[in-house]
Amino acid sequence: MKTVLITAIIVFIVVLPTWIIGSYARTRPPALTSPNIRSGFGGLLWLFVLGQTAWLLRAVWETTFISSEFFFMLVRSVEMMTQASVAVLPTVLAILLGAMTIYQIAVQRTPAAVASTIVMLWIMGPGVAMFQSWFFKLALTQASMLQLFGWAIFWTVYFAASPRVALTYGTPRGRRLVSENQDKVRRL
Questions:
Q1: Of 179, 147, 161, whose CA–CA distance to 118 is shortest?
Q2: How many domains does the chain have?
Q3: How many helices (H) and strands (E) does the chain have?
Q4: Mean pLDDT, rounded, of the chain
Q5: Is this model's pTM higher than 0.70 or not?
Q6: Residue 33 carries which DSSP code?
Q7: Angle 40-43-46 (CA atoms, 0-180°, nearest 5)?
Q8: Most confident residue range from 57-71, 97-111, 134-148
Q9: Is the separation of the CB atoms in 59 and 98 below 8 Å?
Q10: Structural domain boundaries, residue 157
């Protein structure tokens, strides 16, 4: 029963901000529209915001704990400054990028929002993990590599190939889709 309650609390803590962010994002009009193609915030963008929100909240929680240990380590041994910094600072950078990613997807309606989101996904996920594993001479597990690279690859492909994303953020592909769709409508 205790596990179910804790799981329900965690789900609530993640779903509530996702719902608030997504509800606001839905009020923002898409950059482009087309009669036969969905545009605007919806579909898999909800899943992206849910995943990013869950990751961000987890990272903030862990970084709070790690930061308290960071200062304890520095008091005991100043020589540990570099190692402690490499453990904490890239994660703090990833948290900032994670918040910016959610902001870009929820608020911005420009091609730059999609491009910067893709870049930030690769930096804050695989980039930070590879840097920390290289510095500490630790190997990433297959599960963590699958999770990090799988998430980044999936969303990179989705943001590049999705007609909804192309129209919502007004990418050059979105403009082509609108033009092609108008030609089809005229022929009917």
A1: 161
A2: 1
A3: 8, 0
A4: 88
A5: yes
A6: -
A7: 95
A8: 97-111
A9: yes
A10: 2-187
